[in-house]
């Protein structure tokens, strides 16, 4: 008997530099165990050893929101229509409620039921740009169900769609692959080794971590990642005379980053606005690292007892937390235990099982 096929994808190169592609690889690798095959569409580039059953490379030249976006979405829609005719998927999963490929899925799906998945950057864009909000609404209109990772994201999508599709919103908590045992453990001493890892863009607000470090003494920070803010962050660290205390390292593949977690005492997670899940922060917790994080919608519930929060962008408050953690070995031990326990509630296997059940239900739905 032929296994049901899910057509999905993201209009980005297939490489592990984005939390969305990492999450998709984790999930769709495991959906094969629930009886599904996957066709994942993507833009050219990348040599990543992902977990997708089959991939299809798209030809359209990516264009962001603006004058060229409509033509880009039209080109993707033509490509998706061909994929649907050739592969006859049983279900479409549209990743992001605003990316061009998700819009193409919405326009080309026809009678194939579509489930859309909110990831965060799409919802943030829709709060800032009228064009992105229009796209989000068209994608939600075409969806049988809309998956969101937490209640805060559900509330925001519900607001952006004027409450027209409240019944379609389904909260499916994200998850991560859990290690057999933590690799980071509390150490003696009052000089902390801190890490900030992930995409370096304005919303991740890595500058908050750097400016907070300048208000402390003796602690070290490793910034691991790449992105549009790298040059600005490097200059800011130099301006604050932190060249000997802040080290910038390029993006690391996931398994390499996991090996580094044992070198640190805590993670700084400084996102300024909405956060869909905080993938790397939960991964850090799973390996035993406490997380000092921005108190923003969705993230506080995700972090649980494995971290301490501060007001977004408040460098003095973050500096105070760093010094408090450094001065209290007992607090570090409690947060280490809380981090490991909290991460266990975000096992990717549970997410995959929930998504498989939702997909089975959606196959009986209609556009």
Structure description:
The chain is of the alpha/beta class and 367 residues long. The chain folds into two domains: 5-175 and 348-362, Rossmann fold (3-Layer(aba) Sandwich), CATH 3.40.50; 193-344, Glycogen Phosphorylase B (Rossmann fold, 3-Layer(aba) Sandwich). Helix content is 42%, strand content 17%. The chain is built from 14 helices and 13 strands. The strands form two sheets. A seven-stranded parallel sheet has the order 3-2-1-4-5-6-7, with helices on both faces. It has a six-stranded parallel sheet with strand order 10-9-8-11-12-13, sandwiched between helices. It is globular, with a radius of gyration of 21 Å. 47% of the residues are buried. The mean pLDDT is 93.
Task: Name the features.
14 helices, alpha/beta, Rossmann fold, 17% strand, 6-stranded parallel beta sheet, globular, 367 residues, 7-stranded parallel beta sheet, 2 domains, single chain
